[in-house]
Design brief:
Largest sheet: 2 strands, antiparallel
Distance between the termini: 42 Å
Structural class: mainly alpha
Order of helices and strands: HHHHHHHHHHEEHEEHHHEEHHHH
Helix content: 40-55%
Strand content: under 5%
Number of strands: 6
Radius of gyration: 22 Å
Strand order of the largest sheet: 1-2
């Protein structure tokens, strides 16, 4: 852990020094000659940093590119619309919010003692990233919660350095003028390569053997599992042992990390966030070399002009363009996708039923004090933690299993086995 913090401090130093009025450029770590464009700045995978502009030169407002890229800009604005193409409103969850607490009532028990048990709406488009994070009733530990919500984040990071992470969320949000914007992935160079502006991803990539495609890097700045470092508050990607479900779990176990403790069972639990990158890694599409952008941001044609859509939505909304390059029958792909999603959703509900049963029976046994063996209690808690972690990994991943159906199935099957093992132990104390 100390090794990671030391490395992160070097990353902070890189970003907070502004060399000239035209911008700053990361140096080698450890210090060496300035790298040529495209060269790695650390030993390991190449990170396409690009140049960090001086604060006064940062073009953060997406509207600045409207005249030069009108079709792309208009497609970006579609993230402000509902599925029926009506303009959203500014209330949390929008005009027709999906309340997961109503749709999946089990999570009130599974997340008991944590913010998601109080309020949990389906995410809206990038256009509303700032409005929704400000308006949610879930507590925010600091300005680190802004890392994936605004194009202003790198500006804030350059201004405040590591202190940013634990600054007051609401006060810092007053300094923010934009939601997710072009700057997050392009800085001031929309025609250039994808640029990593999230310091957490820059650090996380050093743990990977291979660099993901550019169209995946852009999305992996936010659509990943993460946690807040307990000392610095830094957004941290738990990839030290790998990006697999088991590898991430082993890392959390090694550092004895938990997001919260369940109030009735005393189990230290992990709250998985939105691990689209981790779930997609190793999938059929990933092995074929396709990036997230290939499917979620397809090339579109309007009035004879081609452009890359920045709607960043479900590929099923543009199945012909998103899937048609490889699949002749786009309607069949929609049916296949929805079949997989129904299967995985039904599996996760079944597993959540088991974990709720486990929580209820375990809490009852603890209250009645019928288990007097600490090793048994620790074993049940370990199974509860492991089972709920795997269920959560699938539940909160936004493709409902389609990104990697086999990985989703395996995770839920293992979660079921672990919950059943715990229930078998508890049955001896009924």
């Amino acid at each position: 852990m100390k090794k990671y913090i030391s490395f992160f401090m070097m990353i902070v130093l890189i970003f907070t020094i502004v060399f000239t009025s035209t911008g700053c450029r990361p140096e080698d770590v450890p210090p060496a000659e300035d790298p040529e464009p495209g060269e790695p700045i650390v030993e390991g995978p190449q990170v396409p940093w690009g140049e960090v502009p001086a604060i006064e030169d940062m073009i953060i407002d997406s509207a600045a590119w409207e005249e030069e890229y009108p079709l792309i800009y208009q497609s970006f604005l579609l993230t402000a619309r509902m599925g029926d193409n009506t303009v959203e409103d500014s209330t949390l969850g929008g005009l027709h919010p999906t309340d997961y607490l109503e749709k999946y009532p089990n999570i009130k028990i599974l997340y008991e003692g944590f913010g998601f048990a109080k309020e949990y709406y389906a995410a809206r488009g990038h256009y509303y990233s700032m409005e929704d994070v400000i308006n949610t009733a879930r507590p925010k530990p600091g300005a680190n919660c802004l890392a994936c919500k605004t194009g202003d984040y790198e500006r804030l990071f350059v201004e405040h350095g590591e202190d940013l992470f634990l600054m007051d969320f609401y006060k810092t949000a007053q300094e923010v003028d934009h939601p997710i914007s072009c700057y997050n992935c392009h800085r001031n160079e929309p025609e250039g390569e994808i640029q990593v502006t999230g310091p957490h991803l820059a650090v996380g990539l050093t743990h990977l053997e291979e660099e993901p495609p550019a169209g995946t890097l852009a999305c992996a700045q936010c659509h990943v599992e993460y946690y807040f470092d307990t000392e610095t508050g830094a957004v941290t990607l738990p990839w030290h042992n790998g990006t697999g479900i088991d590898e991430i779990e082993s890392y959390f176990d090694e550092i004895n990390f938990a997001d919260w403790t369940h109030p009735r069972t005393g189990t230290p639990l992990i709250k998985v966030q939105h691990p689209e990158f981790e779930m997609y890694t190793g999938s059929v599409h990933d092995r074929l070399g396709l990036s997230c952008a290939d499917c979620h941001m397809p090339t579109m044609t309007e009035d004879g002009e081609e452009y890359v859509s920045h709607w960043a939505k479900s590929p099923l909304k543009t199945a012909e363009e998103s899937c048609g390059e490889c699949h002749r029958d786009s309607e069949a792909i929609i049916t296949q996708t929805e079949d997989i999603q129904r299967e995985i959703d039904a599996m996760q509900v079944e597993v959540s039923d088991l974990i709720v049963q486990l929580i209820e029976e375990f809490a009852d046994a603890l209250e009645r004090r019928v288990i007097d063996d600490d090793e048994v209690i620790d074993r049940v808690r370990s199974l509860h933690r492991a089972s709920q972690y795997r269920w959560d990994f699938v539940m909160v991943e936004n493709s409902t299993g389609f990104h990697n159906a086999s990985k989703a199935r395996q995770a839920l099957e293992r979660a079921k086995e672990q919950a059943e093992e715990a229930l078998d132990i508890l049955a001896e104390y009924q």
